[in-house]
Every structure is written in C-alpha cells, then in structure tokens.
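Archive entry. Fields below.
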Amino acid sequence: MPKAKKSDYLNKNSLVKHIDITQFKDLDKLVAAMGDTSFQARNLSRAADIYDMALRDQNCSIILCLAGSLVSAGLKKVITDLVNSNMVDAIVSTGAIVVDQDFFEGLGFSHYKGTPFVNDAELRDLAIDRIYDHYIDEDELRVCDETMTRIIDGLEPRPYASREIIREMGAYLVKNGKKHDGFVEAAYKKNVPIFVPAFSDCSAGFGIVLHQHERLKAGKPMVSFDSGRDFLDLTYLKMYASQDTGIVMISGGVPKNFTQDTVVAAEVLGHDAPMHKYAIQLTVADERDGALSGSTLKEASSWGKVDLSYEQMVYGEATVTFPLLAGAVYARGAHKARKGRELSNWFEGPNFKYPAEKSKAAGKSKKTAPVGA
Amino acid sequence: MPKAKKSDYLNKNSLVKHIDITQFKDLDKLVAAMGDTSFQARNLSRAADIYDMALRDQNCSIILCLAGSLVSAGLKKVITDLVNSNMVDAIVSTGAIVVDQDFFEGLGFSHYKGTPFVNDAELRDLAIDRIYDHYIDEDELRVCDETMTRIIDGLEPRPYASREIIREMGAYLVKNGKKHDGFVEAAYKKNVPIFVPAFSDCSAGFGIVLHQHERLKAGKPMVSFDSGRDFLDLTYLKMYASQDTGIVMISGGVPKNFTQDTVVAAEVLGHDAPMHKYAIQLTVADERDGALSGSTLKEASSWGKVDLSYEQMVYGEATVTFPLLAGAVYARGAHKARKGRELSNWFEGPNFKYPAEKSKAAGKSKKTAPVGA
Amino acid sequence: MPKAKKSDYLNKNSLVKHIDITQFKDLDKLVAAMGDTSFQARNLSRAADIYDMALRDQNCSIILCLAGSLVSAGLKKVITDLVNSNMVDAIVSTGAIVVDQDFFEGLGFSHYKGTPFVNDAELRDLAIDRIYDHYIDEDELRVCDETMTRIIDGLEPRPYASREIIREMGAYLVKNGKKHDGFVEAAYKKNVPIFVPAFSDCSAGFGIVLHQHERLKAGKPMVSFDSGRDFLDLTYLKMYASQDTGIVMISGGVPKNFTQDTVVAAEVLGHDAPMHKYAIQLTVADERDGALSGSTLKEASSWGKVDLSYEQMVYGEATVTFPLLAGAVYARGAHKARKGRELSNWFEGPNFKYPAEKSKAAGKSKKTAPVGA
Amino acid sequence: MPKAKKSDYLNKNSLVKHIDITQFKDLDKLVAAMGDTSFQARNLSRAADIYDMALRDQNCSIILCLAGSLVSAGLKKVITDLVNSNMVDAIVSTGAIVVDQDFFEGLGFSHYKGTPFVNDAELRDLAIDRIYDHYIDEDELRVCDETMTRIIDGLEPRPYASREIIREMGAYLVKNGKKHDGFVEAAYKKNVPIFVPAFSDCSAGFGIVLHQHERLKAGKPMVSFDSGRDFLDLTYLKMYASQDTGIVMISGGVPKNFTQDTVVAAEVLGHDAPMHKYAIQLTVADERDGALSGSTLKEASSWGKVDLSYEQMVYGEATVTFPLLAGAVYARGAHKARKGRELSNWFEGPNFKYPAEKSKAAGKSKKTAPVGA
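PREDICTED_STRUCTURE:
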C-alpha cells in the first residue's frame, strides 16, 4: 500500500462548511411544534422561547457561553450570525474556539471532515490533528501559534484581560485576515467583548509561552494574561452595564461557571446584582456525576446564580441542537427591533468606565479618567 | 409546616467523610481480577497496571489532573494519600477542588450529604449551596473567599503563577489551618507543585476580584493571576525536570488539555520533549460530542501529546472508580521504593531554576540567579 | 393548599400533539447542510442519505424498528406518515409503543405534557402515570387493557404470532376507533405487518394474563402469544419476500436485536440470506457498556448481520433526531415513485405463503395450501 | 502480513474469567465507607443497604432482573453465587444471558477477551462474533443453537412458558454439561425459576425457529413459546407465593418493565398485591430520553409499581458496580440465616399450584389438581 499523503485527508472535498441558519425556512415552526411533544424536543422549544423572551426584554443583555469544538465542527457562522444580528452582547468562551478555531480560520485556514475510525499513528506522521471526526493541519496550527506570539510581542508589557488581546486579534483579522466570516472579527466590529477565562489553555497559550520565555531570557518585562481581570471586567458589566442578563450556554466547562459566578462576585464587591434572569444550556453532560458541566440550572439557583423562572436545560449534541435553537430564534425576528449593547464601549484599554464617567464619556470620550488607568 | 433551619440540612449526621483507601484489604486483588473480565472493569484494571508501571519507571514523573467535585464528594483523602505516598509529583486542577473544597475544609469547614430531590428555592433562602447531592454552607464559603483576599492582599503586587499562590495557601494552612488532612497542605510539605490554569474560576477568583477592585479604586498596584506563566512553568518541568511523564486524569476539562499541551509547548520553545509516556483517564464524558473532556487518548496521540503504548480510558464516575484505582495501585506498593520528585524545588518565587543553576543551587541555593528575577 | 385534581394535570391545554413532518419546508436542505459539518449532525445527514438510498433501491424492503416512548412523546404521526408514504414495509416494535400508546390513542385517549419535577406520590393518588415529562390517565390505560382482553377473548384458542393479533387491533380501530391517525391502523390498511417480539411486556400482556387466567379457571383452551412464530415469520420475509433489506432503528432494545438476527435465523434454516444492506440507528445508548442497545453496527457486522458499506449510528434523542431524519427523507421524495411491498399479503392467518404458493395465490387465492395450516 | 487465524484471537491467554466476589476481603467495609461520600458511590452503598434489608425481611422474595452482556463479560459467578447463597428467589432475564452466554458456557464453551479497536470484517471472515471488547466463536454458538433445537424437539408439542424450557436446560446441563458453574444449572438445583419474557430473541429463538420450520413442513404439531404465560406465572408468584418483593435490577430493558408490571397484572386479576417493597437498579441509562431502561424508580411509583421508601438507582457500568454490590451484601452475611424460597415448587409442568393445592401438595404432591392441567 503506498503511503498516504496529507492531501489524501485534507483537500477541497473534505472541507467542513459552516451551516447557515438564515437559509432555512420554517425552523421557527418546527421548533414551535416540538413544544407540544416531549423530552428534549420540548426542552429545546422552551429554550428557544426563553431566548426569544430575553431578546425582547429591553433591559437584558445576552451572554453567550461557548465550549466544545463548535467552530471546527461547522458552527462558526451560527455564532457570527448571532453577533451580527444583535442577538449576543458578550461572549465567554474556551480558548480553543476563539483562537485555534475561529481566529485560525480567519488566517485563511480550514477544518476538514474525517472519521474517528482512522489510524492515529498515521495521522501523527502526517502532522494531522484529529478532533473526533474531523482534522486540522498541524502546520497551519503552528502558524496560528506564531501569529499569536507576534501579536503579543507587539503589546506593551503588562497584565492583560483576555478581552483586550482578543480585540487585538479582531483588529488583526480586519487588516490581515483572509476570511472575514468569523465571530472574533464580527464581535470586534460590533463591540461585543469576548472573555476567555482560561486563556493560556489554547493556541494563545503557546503564543504567551514563547513570548514570556524569550522575554525572561532577555531579562525584559513581558505581557501576562490577567484572568482575575477577566472576572472583574465581566462582573463590572453585570453591575453597571446591564443588571438583567440572559445566558445562552452551549456546552458547559469554565465559561458556564465563570459567567454564573459574576452574580456572586458582584455581591462580594458589595453590590446586590440580580441573578441571571434567563438561562438556557445545550449540553450532553448530565448531573449524575456531580460535575459542573452537567449541573442543572435549578442547582445553580441554590447558589443564587440563576433565577428559577426562566431556565431550561436541553440535552443533546450542539451540532444538531444549536442550529435549531439559533435558527428558530433568528426566524422569530426579535433581533430586528433590538440594538446591540456594544458592551466593549464600557472599556478603554485595561480600564472600565464607571457609569458616571461613561455618561460623560459619551459626550467627550477623550477626557474620561477611567478606573485603573 | 414549620420553616426549615440550616441545621436541619447541615449537621453532624450529614457530614461527608473522606474515604480512606489504605484501610481496605484486597483492592489490588479485586482490581487485578477485573482484568480478566470486560468493559469498564477490565479498563480500570489496565489503568491500574499502567499507573503502577509509571510509578516503577525511574525516570518518570506523575502529573495528577483533577476536575469534577472530587473533594466535596469525599475523595480528599485519596488525593492526600497519593501525595503523601510519593505517587504524585505535580497536580493540575480546577480551582474549585483546590480552593473552594480542599483549602475550604482546611479552614475547618465541611461538606454535608444531601439529596438532589430538594427544593432549591428553600436552600437558597437558607444560604445552602448544592452540588448535586451534597451541600455547602454559603456563609462558610464567604469566609474562604475573604481568606483568599487577605492572602492575596499580603502579596507583593505583581503577576503570579497559580502555583505560587497555592503554596502560600499551603503555608497558611500549616500555620492557621484547623484540619490538616488536605492535599493542598500535603503538597506544600512534600514540594508537589499545584497548577490551576483557570485560577479566577473559583473562590480565588472572588478573592482576586475584591483585591483588584480595591487597588483600582485606591490607584495602587495589584496582584494578578498570570495563567501564561502557569503554562510556561509546567512546560519547563516537562523540558528540564522530567522528560518522561505519566498523567493520571480524574475527569477532563482544562486540566486535561493543559497538561497534554505541555508536549506541544515544549516543541514551540524549540525543545523536543517526548509525548506523555503513560496516560490514563477516569471519566463519564464520551467522545461522540467531540468535546475535549471525552476525547480519547488515541485522539491525543494524533496531536503528538500522548504515546499510544500505555494509555487507557475508563468510563465511570470517579467516586467509584478513583478509590478502586488508587487503592489498588497503593496496595501494590510501588510507592514504597519511590522518592518524591519535589518538583517545587525547581522554582524559587516566580523563577524557574534552569538545570545548570539548579545543580549549583543544590550546593548554595542563595546564589542562584534564577530566570526571570 | 387544596388537593390537586386529575384535571389539573390532564386537560386540553396539556395535550401532547403529534409533530407533522410534512408541514415544514427545507428539512431536506437543513439535513443536507449538516452533512458538511461534524459530529452527530453529520451522522444524521449520512443516515438520511442511507435511508433515501434504501428507498430508491428497487429490491429493498424497509424494516422500521421502534423502541422508547415514541408515540406518547408526540412522534405518532411521523411513524404514520412513513407508513402511508410507502417508506416502511414492516415494523418491529416494543409492545408499549404499539398497544399502550398507538392503539390506546386510537381508542380516543391522549397523552399529556407534564414535568419530571413533580411529586410522584401525588400522581399515584390521582391515578396518573408518568413517563419522564408527560402523563397518562391510568383509568384510560385500564380500558386499553380490557379492550385487549376482549379482542383476545374473541379469537380462536391457539398460539398466535403477534402480527396476527396486531392486525386484529388494526381492524378493531377501523371499526371502533375514535382517532384514525395512528400507525397500527395505517399499517393494517397498507398491509404493513407489525411484529412485537416481547408482546406480553405491555398492555397486551395484561390482556393475555386476564384471558388465560379465566380460561385456566374455566378449564378451557386459550390463546397464547407465540414469540417463536414472530421470529420465524420475520425470517421467512427476509428469506422469500425481500432478500435485500434496510433497517431503520429508532432506539435499540429487543426490536433491534430481533431484526438483525433474522439474517442468522435464515442461515440456521439453511438459507443464505444477505446481511441487512442498509442500517441506521438513532440512539442515546453507547457502546461502552457492551449492551445491545448501544452496540455499533460495525460490531453487528462481525456477527454477519449488517453490511459495513451503508451503516450509520446517530447519537441523539429521538424526539429531535427522528423528525429531522424522517422529514428530510420525506422531502427528498423517493417515496413518490415507490410502491408499498404489502408484506402482510405473504401471510394468511397463521400461515406463511411460500413463493410458489404465493404466485399461485395471486391468481386464485382461495386454493393455496399455506404452510402450517 | 500473514492472514490471521481464529486462534490468534481465541486462545487460552485470552479467556474471560469470572470474578469471584467471595474471595475479596473488605468489600462490605469499602461499600459502607462509600455511604459517607457522594454521587454514585453513595448510591451504590445505599443500594447495598436496601438489598441487605430485603434479605433480612422474612416475608420478602428477591427477584433478580438481568440485561446487558453480563455473563460473557465475566459476571457469571457473581450470579451463580447469589443463587447458591439463597440471595435470589426468581430471575427475569434477557435470552442472551441465559442461553447464548450461561447455557453456552455450560456446554463447555468460553468467551474471550478482545478489543473494540479491531477490524470487524476480519472477525467476520474468521467467524468470530464481537461484543464490544470480547469475542465468541460463532461455530460454538451454532452448537448452542442446535442444542436448543434438540431440547425443544424433545418436548411434547404445546405452548410453554420460558421457565419450563429453562428448567429443561438446567436438567440438560446437570446431565450433559461440561462446566457446572453457571446460574442456569444452579437455579435448576435450587428451584429458582428463570423467566425470559422475550425468549425468541436469543439462541433459543434460533432453536425454536428451526423446530417450528421443520414441524410446519412436516405438518406436525409443535412447541411454542407462550410469553403470556411467563407474565401470568410471575404474577401468580407475586400474588400467592410472596406478596412482599424486592427487585434487584442489573441494567433495564424488558426484564425491568416486565417484573415491575406484575403488581399491575395482579390488580388486573382482581388481586390487590403490594408494590415492590425494595427496588434497586444498576444502569448506565438515564431518564432524560424518556425510555424505560433509564426511567427512575420514583417514576415507577407513579404507576403504583414500586414503593418510594426503599428504592435506589445507581448509575454505573455493571462490571464495576455489580461485583461491589453483590460482594458487599454477601460479606454482610444476611444470606446465612436465609432459606431459599424454592419458588419453582409452585409450578408443576405448565401448571401453577394455587395455595390450597400447594399446602395439600406438600403432603401428597401426586394428588394435586393444578390449575391449567
């Protein structure tokens, strides 16, 4: 048998193509009809109702939490469409989705359909990385790591919240990107801040490791990822920008916990922020092992994080459930009358603009004296 | 019906008690016999074999990865016993396990057995937080948050790797702790470094948020969590301290990915570190949704992270599988002839001691000029 | 609190309504687009391709295998539509779906939306039976049991294959039914045989138990369920009526195994029947516990039951995945050019018409001398 | 690469060996300690308490429900030990466990350890059948099928409850068996009846199919499987032999539902039998898809089948949880003071001995005039 080549696996015919929820009729009717059935179909339908309700709530900001290999799997456009349609006001994500997948594709690269029934040793030899049933070109991933190092190298040495660096990445894509359909770029343009609480756990981690290693050797000051600031910044938004919040969680993990915790963090800062008013989660995890990802939103209410009135867990894998949810809510059209919150405008560099300053800032933005300058 | 009181739920009779794997005979025989059966019992048996093999490998360091509500569920002593028996050389964990659970209990607090079939609204009124089937006193958790703020307040303002702060927590427990059976304290004493890559996603996050908020208001310099440094430090260990590594993963999440990635990070730093030589994971997640927690170790080998020869997934919930695994491997006694690697000694404050420096340091530790001073 | 009444739970507003896959546009486009994504969406898309391919295969009969609470959950019309559209040639099912759910609704009764978060003791007091998140009126279920007894009482005492009795049920519904949208009635009219290998494990079981109990007391001959004949009859169909078969499995359980086994049974009878040529399964079970429901179709191929070329597992809950699958395949329209196989015509009472007899029978059906007369 | 031979897969070194729960010390202590932890360990511990309680309840009979590939996986001796220790009074099982696995081994055959990562096409060529991670010799399975045909051929032609035929199988093994450590033989000797409600869905099905096929061709009367009688017989036991019952369910499926339903069946016969007093289930299924296998015992109580006081679900795979459960309960020793109920003695051939007759029968068994003679 002749030896396999990389192009046997990664080629034009095997490209993952991102699903476009704006192209299908009747997703709203389908999901509405599911509301009179049972089990996960009915849960999905109720989740869509809650998301729709949150969008029509004038005082409510939507936080989208992302985990799992969503973008590599073909859900990039779903997220981008939500951002561009003012259906999302802030994003909290794993690093892989933001950097290794969305930003990576923005650099011009792609993901490739494959199969789990493959010889991993052969893939390793070909420098092909596997995510269950699809593939990545490891050499292209290295380019992504290096791009991150270069972006970080270009920053003034100090601690950074992830949202700052991800804005830099958005700006980079606007200027240097080869594909412009990703959500990092869309969020940059729509002033939707993106938080990655475990920012070193992805391609950005490889970027920062190389940056810090070289600065250490050179004895020079360096950039660091300030994950405490991520938490503080998101908590400030909860306290000042939008007390009423709806959280749309795709999978669980750190983004879920981190976002839910902002209610408690506000309390720690002496601020009585309301619980998240609307909360839905699409997940395959379950509660019976006691882990965070599958913990129910009812359980979260015992912690004072999530209100019991409008919460819904939907158990199902996201490639199927997320397009249905997003497509149905999009089709109902609540977004048409909704303005984006542009929550990024509450920040200026590392600083948060307290409300007083912000209102002033609206008039003459240059004169603000933001917190933490 | 008279209103419930907190003590109806949280009392002496409902205490979670930590299981002691050193007290049961024949766990090694049981798990060995499982090796001739099938399904998860056989997988568990093979995982024990691999762990035992890794312990007997002179050149191999063991990294224990922790996720899920392990300590609150009664597995604290299992982890502590592994640390004290030189069966673990480094720990990578979620923040909740380290801070909200182990450190929390070290402060004198406890977890309480409960049930998932309970009214969460009532729990909320009583300030009782629920983790599936057990409870935490929310007021005690606030004491934990505040203790974290106080510890952080006492630090020189600069970016910190989590391992540094967790060592401070260990030292704090030695001096001020009320229970001394936790793994944070044990790891401190045994020089086992603990890394928490998403350190703001736990009670330490509440601590840092309050610290930074007050420093910002006062216009003063502050502590930050440098998650990039966490990654760099663990990668340095992989590069210089112990090229051969075995990873024992309880659940998945960030600790799993982060630890596996050190092989790639070493490569990014121009260092050809070998893949993790031994790798086992106990998990309930599965690979079919493509998420990281359930991704197989075979898949990880396509990324060049894990060697295919000695890897084993075990699908089962950790309260059942972890005591069996740890108990069986402990009973086989490989640890008796094994010295702890004391990997914490490679660090001095924020700095990593490169090998040359380290050997010098052994003689005259004060004169080293560590990297990154 | 005043005591709850049955009508608080079971009323017009809480009716489960059956989803109508013929009413939504673009399900085919949606499912086709999923084919370029990953994970279960791509699997679902491939399953639809395989089902479509099987329908276009001139020589292929389709066997639909049903398990799980499908009809009570709102999927009755999906199944009925498949039958009426010549997309199914035989059905193998659990008893509950056929008797307690479809036949039950045909008698004029309904299922009601509820919630899993309910006091089961209260439901018990109200004679309401719960299926996870929906309800059944237990008194109405007793009427169903009694109707079954009456139907069985009316039969000549001898052993019966389930398909015979289920045809009687279909005939009963045509004459006495109050709703005529079920698949038992549709299958009766379209000559689609229905097999229930574990026929005593449902409301038919209550019917037969009462029948036999009374006949025993009276010392009279009685009806019995001959599950061996079920197996023989389905095997005869595989041998003589349609060697090429496609199996569409919704959930696993006995129907899955039973149907797959017909290939082996044919072999036992000295007949070299081909493996099932097309096979898809929608399920939440997984293979890691080694049980039948989650066993992969690849595994089934080691047993010589299923061909490897066109098989696809789809992991997801059926209320979401089955309407998508059925709706997409329906929309592609292969059924328009397809004739129903009318496999019931191979049987005459308890007897199977061997091919020679059958062709004769076509001309002069009264003169056949069927096997087993 | 030279072609693989059958013996490369099936040989002395790859034999599945049955785990012996009587050989390990401290399983009771281990499982008791798990009762103060959480999640599934605590559930397992409570399940053991309930099983132990049921054994000490003088008026209670224990029904063991079996599904999943338990015997092939190495759990045969666990079941046999329970039978021999008077810890089980009746068994309700899938056919595969009873016929294809236990009886099959009794004929002298074995199961072999393998791996799921294997080429199924190659196995097919070698006539090796795979069950996830272990193998069966298909040729040996044919011998089992044929033996079943021979046993059935030897019976007087009439409808049979499965328990009758399984007793014949037990008797066959006593006389002709090559291994005598199975539970079919043990149950025969201990007068523990075994019910298989879906008896045609296993090797017995191949046996009956061949038997009936040949009788049909010869125009002769034949044996049939009367699954209604199975249900009636188990219901009679519930009504007359032992009103108080404890059910120990390993996995779900038909045996679970069938056994629970006897309470309702008794009611249908005008007999007010109490709900199952004790009920535990070990399973990997979950309730969120609404299917029977994962339906909770609380849900069953809404149907009036299971009492709420002593019920416990344990979520975990049976090769790990069943030896722990059985081993712990065995070690507590309740069985030492317990007599077997010998429920088989309530039957005489096809007939059930009503209590009056039974007491008479105790004295002069020949004169009974059993029901249904």
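CURATOR_NOTE: DSSP finds 15 helices and 13 strands in chain A.
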